[in-house]
Design a protein that fits this description.
Length: about 350
């Protein structure tokens, strides 16, 4: 793509406050250079803190809080031109409030995880985007590793992903210091423990989110509690994750409280990014093309407080990060050769933003 070509996008911002301004926001933007319109509240939703859009980009799934304070999921029809959302369906999840959701690779099943009570839920998804009643719901069992006594007194299911073959599903358990592996039946949507049911992280690591390399063999886990990212080798033949390397997200002289949040690979698979809450930064690494190992490129201020989720556009030209505690989203340009970030613009006044999704218009 010509770097001078102007492309129109629409951004969706999910927020997690508890007031009348909570919901899903939209914002139109153009890149080349970056021009932003004013964001607007598209759909009023309680704690719509994590969003997922399907490959066809016509459906949006969101976690929300139900009227009774329990976790629900909603699906919306997305207008590709206007960005408008039309509610299709809503279902109650197992357990309490949901923190993460994902689609399997066939997009016939929706997964959700509940952090507080460590519940995993599976929902069927019809062709029209409607979510059916949950087909499976179970609680992760474990009293917690207790390596971090304040955060690991019990299991905490923090995220869920289908592997590239769609034969397995991973669940990050922050409280147990484990990444669970499940056999996945894509015909029935059922999850059962794999032959090797989990890999243990370092004590007190607290695995949070995962990123998959395009080759399907390397998986990167960002560990919330100890400020690290671990590279794993994934063998679908064996159904096993094998740790290869762990790198720090923080500078050695930083001693204040910090918890990590998101991890993503650049579309080129040449760079990997993570977010630090406390240090309030985005950390960038180069990815070795031969063995997948990480080498630090840069740490840069997130431009706000408590950077939670972030995303990249489909071309990998820019990155947008949600700074929850400062109510802003900050856009960064990505150098295509070095992977380094440079701040472009800030979007203010999106309260409690915790999730960013960006797609081309039309």
């Amino acid at each position: 793509m010509n770097t001078s070509e102007r492309v129109s996008y629409i951004a969706y911002y999910g927020t997690s406050n508890s007031n009348e301004a909570d919901g899903i926001y939209t914002q139109f933007l153009e890149y080349g250079p970056l021009v932003l319109e004013e964001p607007k509240l598209e759909s009023l939703e309680a704690k719509a803190g994590f969003l997922k859009i399907n490959r066809a980009e016509d459906l949006l799934f969101s976690i929300v809080m139900g009227p009774d304070g329990s976790g629900h999921v909603k699906s919306f029809r997305r207008d590709r031109a206007s960005g408008g959302l039309t509610l299709i369906s809503e279902q109650a999840a197992g357990g309490g409030t949901i923190c993460h959701l994902n689609l399997d690779r066939s997009e016939r099943w929706l997964f959700g995880t509940s952090y507080g009570d460590a519940v995993v839920t599976v929902f069927p998804v019809d062709e029209d985007g409607s979510i059916g009643e949950r087909s499976q719901s179970f609680e992760l069992e474990g009293e917690g590793s207790k390596a971090n006594p304040e955060r690991q007194q019990r299991s905490h299911a923090h995220s869920i992903y289908a592997d590239p073959t769609n034969r397995f599903v991973f669940v990050c358990d922050l409280g147990m210091d484990r990444i669970y592996v499940y056999d996945f039946d894509s015909k029935t949507g059922s999850l059962t423990p794999a032959k090797t049911p989990f890999v243990e992280t370092a004590p007190g690591a607290g695995p949070r989110h995962l990123a998959f390399h395009g080759n399907g063999r390397w998986v990167y886990a960002i560990n919330e509690l100890n400020g690290t990212i671990t590279q794993y080798e994934w063998s679908a033949d064996l159904g096993q994750l094998r740790p290869l390397q762990t790198v720090d997200t923080l500078p050695s002289d930083f001693s204040e409280c910090n918890i990590c949040a998101e991890v993503l690979l650049h579309p080129s698979n040449r760079f990997l990014y993570g977010s630090n809450r406390g240090h309030d930064s985005i950390v960038a690494y180069s990815v070795d093309k031969d063995n997948g190992s990480l080498e630090l490129i840069q740490r840069i201020s997130s431009g706000g407080e408590h950077p939670r989720n972030f995303t990249l556009d489909d071309q990998g030209r820019f990155l947008a990060v949600a700074n929850k505690d400062s109510d802003n989203i900050v856009y960064f340009e990505i150098d295509p050769q070095s992977g380094e970030l440079s701040e472009l613009k800030r979007v203010e006044g999106v309260p409690g933003c915790t999730c960013v999704r960006i797609f081309k218009v039309g």
